[in-house]
Amino acid sequence: MTARQAECIVGLLYAVLSAGTIRLTGDGQGLAAVWPANAVLLAALLDRRPDGWGRLLAAGYLANVATGLAMRGVGPAPFLDGLCHVAEAWIAARLLRPALNGEDMLVAPSVVGRFILVCGLVAPALSGLGGTAVASLVSGRDPAVAFGNWVTGNGLGLLVFTPFLFALLRGDYLRCLTGKDWGRRAEALALQGLVAATAYGVFCVAERSLLFVLFGPAMLATFRVGRLGTKAAVAVIAVIGTVATLRGQGPIAAVTPDPHEQATLLHAFLAVLLLTCLPVAAALTAQGRNLRSLSRSAESLRAQRAELARLAATDGLTGVLNRTAFREAALAAMRNSRMAPVSTPPSLIAIDLDLFKQVNDRHGHLAGDRALVHLVSVLRAGLREADTIGRVGGDEFLVLLPGTDADQAQVVAARLREALRRAPLTLDDGTALLLSMSCGVAPHRDGMGFEEVVHAADMALYGAKRARRETWMLSA
């Protein structure tokens, strides 16, 4: 929707509400009992940056003047009255917008308090000074009565309808409905239907005063739908209650036949309803935000704990398990093999890079670190997902092979040695570094602990290294 389209819609809606309000609640000359049209203009102002307010204010003013001329006749009153109404919306927007900061007006109890004070008293009282002067000069109304009617009627219109219209213009209701499943949508609509049916029953059907009954469905909509449910519920009750009372129906009309007293009582009831529901909705919204914030904090803490646990369990250079974490994994595999009715016990492969000290001495420790990382990448490529690698010393590694006997482990060790031999490490200066490793295999047997299996694998490793050194010596 373009800015010009929005201004046209605001002007049209302002004119329709103004005409309908004068027709239903005014006598054609004086002040209307309830004035919701300014809520349209205020909601539009709050939804736009201040540098775009000029056209909206002009649209509201022209709509007000056109309606006044059509409904109350030609004269200066519509032009002066329109200035007062537009000034009221501008004052309320100026005072509310800094507190909203782009958020909803029911986002927190403090914002609700400011909204009630500004829209229920400050803005209507300031604009009411001009409105009272116009009413007194044109129709000869008592200034005190005219001022009271202006403040209560305009204030009630802003309080009841601005939250609903603001959410409607921002698209909050559309996002709320599209973001819910069909069950939640049906529930939200059914709750508003319950509010409307209850309000109709209280104001148009019941023979006794049952105003207290309205708090039930209004609070239910607040708790189940949130602040959007509160805004819609209060607006529905206000519309039905106002129309019924002005037609002489309902508990308020039964109390007194005086229209001004009826308006005062209706204002008082709707004010109590607002002061009850709006702070609750704001508190629920704030609580929901706090809960979401706590949930995000808890999720962040869980992620941090998981990361800390991972760092505590892994070797910082190669990323494989350190000795403590590898020991826990090996013990778990040994327990699982004992508990299974038919299971092959795990085996360990002890691995040591050949002539690793010479790599450090000739090429530097950085090259030695890269050799260790390269070894781990070769091991991972040649092992199963269930196999586990652990670094237990400088260039000493252990590999846990669950469900693997000694013969199978020997085959795996030979395959890993061959894979490392076929994958030279290229250093930064272009040197191709040929790496080799020695392996020792030891299966886990009943009655053996972790350290015993590691010792057996180490002994096999040392034997393999001695044999390789003897082979190198004989070759030399």
How would you describe this protein?
The termini are far apart. Helix 15 (about 365-380) packs across helix 16. The model is unreliable at about 470-475 (pLDDT under 50). The protein has a four-stranded antiparallel beta sheet with strand order 2-3-1-6, sandwiched between helices. The protein has a two-stranded antiparallel ribbon with strand order 4-5. The chain is about 70% helix and about 5% strand. With about 475 residues, the chain is mainly α. The chain is elongated.
What keyword list fits this structure?
476 residues; mainly alpha; disordered C terminus; four-stranded antiparallel beta sheet; 6 strands; elongated
Explain briefly what this protein structure is:
By secondary structure, the protein is mainly alpha-helical.
Distance between termini?
87 Å
Largest sheet, in brief, is: 4 strands, antiparallel
Report low-confidence residues grouped into runs of 5 or more.
472-476
Structural class: mainly alpha
Question: How many strands?
Answer: 6
Written as H for each helix and E for each strand, in order along the chain, the element string is: HHHHHHHHHHHHHEHHEEHEEEH
With strands numbered from the N-terminus, the spatial order across the biggest sheet is 2-3-1-6
Average pLDDT for all residues? 85
Q: Measured on Cα atoms, how large is the radius of gyration?
A: 40 Å
Helix content: over 70%
Strand percentage: 5-15%
Count of DSSP H/I helices: 17
Overall form: elongated
Itemize the secondary structure elements and their pairings.
Layout: H1 3-25, H2 37-46, H3 53-72, H4 77-100, H5 109-139, H6 143-170, H7 172-178, H8 182-205, H9 215-225, H10 227-246, H11 250-255, H12 259-313, H13 323-339, E1 347-353, H14 356-363, H15 365-382, E2 388-391, E3 396-401, H16 406-421, E4 425-426, E5 432-433, E6 437-443, H17 450-475
Antiparallel strand pairs: 1-3, 1-6, 2-3, 4-5
Helix pairs in contact: 1-2, 1-3, 2-3, 2-4, 2-6, 3-4, 4-5, 5-6, 5-12, 6-10, 6-12, 8-9, 8-10, 9-10, 9-12, 10-12, 14-15, 15-16
